[in-house]
TrEMBL record:
Protein name: Chaperone protein HtpG
Disordered: region residues: 603-624
Source superkingdom: Bacteria
Record-linked Gene3D superfamilies: 3.30.230.80, 3.40.50.11260, Histidine kinase-like ATPase, C-terminal domain
The family this protein is said to belong to: Belongs to the heat shock protein 90 family.
SUPFAM superfamilies (alphabetical): ATPase domain of HSP90 chaperone/DNA topoisomerase II/histidine kinase, Ribosomal protein S5 domain 2-like
Species assigned in the record: Gaoshiqia sediminis
Binding positions (ATP): E31, N35, D76, M81, S96, G97, T166, R328
Amino acid sequence: MQKGKIGVSSDNLFPIIKKFLYSDHDIFLREIVSNAVDATQKLKTLAARGETSVSVENAAVRISLDEDKKTITVSDNGIGMTAEEVEKYINQIAFSGANEFLDKYKNDANAIIGHFGLGFYSSFMVSHKVEIISKSYKEGAQAIRWECDGSPEYILEDADRTEVGTDIIMYINEESEEFVNKARVSEILNKYCKFLPVPVVFGKKTTWKDGKEVDTEEDNQINDIAPAWTKKPVDLKDEDYASFYQQLYPYSEEPLFNIHLNVDYPFNLTGILYFPKLKNTIEVQKNKIQLYSNQVFVTDSVEGIVPEFLTLLHGVIDSPDIPLNVSRSYLQSDSNVKKISTHITKKVADRLSQLFKDNREEFEKKWDDLKIFIEYGMLTDEKFAEKAMSFFLFKNTDGKYFTFEEYEKLIKDSQTDKDNNLIYLYTSHLEDQYSFIQDAKNKGYDVLVMDDVLSTHLINQFEQKHTDKRFVRIDSDVVDHLIRKEDPADHLSFEERQELSPVFQSVCPETNGVNYVIDFKNMGEQAQPMVITRNEFMRRMKDMSKLQGNGGMNFYGDLPESLNLVVNTDHPLVKKVLAEKDEVLSADLTQLNDQLAALKGEQEGLEKAKEGKKDEEVPQADKEKLEDVRTKISGLEDEKRDKLKAFGKDNKLAKQLVDLALLANGLLKGEDLDKFVRRSVELIK
């Protein structure tokens, strides 16, 4: 029996390797099984070259669990190790046998995963003792047994083993007893090992008998050694891709379509990416693409290898050329990663472009499910955005689809404003903005549907790239002012506006954190008496702040909602309110206006007397007189405003007109709605 010390530079290195080498402790099983697969693949390579007569016909990796002894054993009938190889590859940490083997057999070796020689030591993250029992394929080789308790000391001695291969026996420590459980081991194997290229067997298949689950004689192979992405696209049918998707994501809704990646230059990359149905929202969970290296699961956090927007896809990417750090759990950034990322983006864009060209009708049917993905790509990847302009589709309220170029031709004549800007009208909600849409269509305008969470961001991007094009939401102004062909005439004097504004302001709701700004526009006698619109800029900022959460736009999200109550000065009912105001308040307003006129004349004279003088040159009496005049003006204006508000609150017609506008926008609810109904009945009588 031989005793010795493992070749590490410091006794302190071993516990660091045991505890911190891997981010997830369950990865130990992946590493040990992967090593067993490597050993099997090596023996297959030698057999194929005629360098060994050892049979590889029933090659497999077997995992066994002993819950009483608290052990997990991983067994293979692969290449095995001699005592000298154990010394070299186990006792000298980080001297990788895979690297040396690849150098020697680089033209024949296939799917050798190990690169760092550290994977074996992951077993010590969960074990208080590890044994290796191994017999090399070499003629006359002596079987050996190696044992280590997690300290630098080890035991290496001869063993009795007749079959070529290796057993790794892990004695699970108290802190890791969760892994001494059949269901837990199954879960880990299914996560990390379900597509390894060598059969991986864990126990026997089960069946129900006499009301309980019992083992059968058939091995329970947990992996598919030839998954769809390892095959050539020409050998696969649509049902094969659909079946593989269900294998990856059981019980999931059928995807829209897929892209089969198969690249061998300038890097090796295979995989299948699926387009899921995203509908109108971005999925929060983006870890749906699984990254493999030679069929060994690496990670499902692929932000480092694929562009941000492609993380919305599902599927598998497999590449031995993606550089991994020592634990294989995180991607390292280098030129290969950037090349692969760029290539995948190009393949996705080309595939979408081809689908559009080959069968536009089918593409349009899938557009509502695809558009979030494409919009996300256009917002986050400039190169994808350039390619996507050829297949991005606008959808209008009639359900028709147009490319950017097609839509520009459609609306150019009717929707170009007086400043030669092309105006794209859009709705974010077909039902809520129905009346606005109808008004626009009656005027001969076309209206787009842009109702998903990314629309506001996409609109901003379009406008930045095309400065002569503007997107205007259908409810941001009255229809005559959405596309300004000429500057509108004003039918009300400034004084009339000043007197009407408090009347309608007084009957606007005072709750729900909404500010109402009164505006006056001449919209014609046939238009609605009042319309509620939303300021385009503020609404966009608030929409963007919602999507960005606590980002820089959050300031806008905290601002109260601001709505414009646009009063149609041409409407007979509005003129009636104006006439009733004059009738009821004529005497009071005339008196107040005369007093205000006199005071404002006096104010003007006092301020003119100050012109050209320094503050200390103005007599104190004049300063006090001016301040007194200003105070009186402010008091009279408040008195005038109070009288107008009091009139408005008592005027049922004014309140009814405001409530009608609120009702049309779904803003009249609860007690206010009940009062509106009762008032309507009274007015009808």
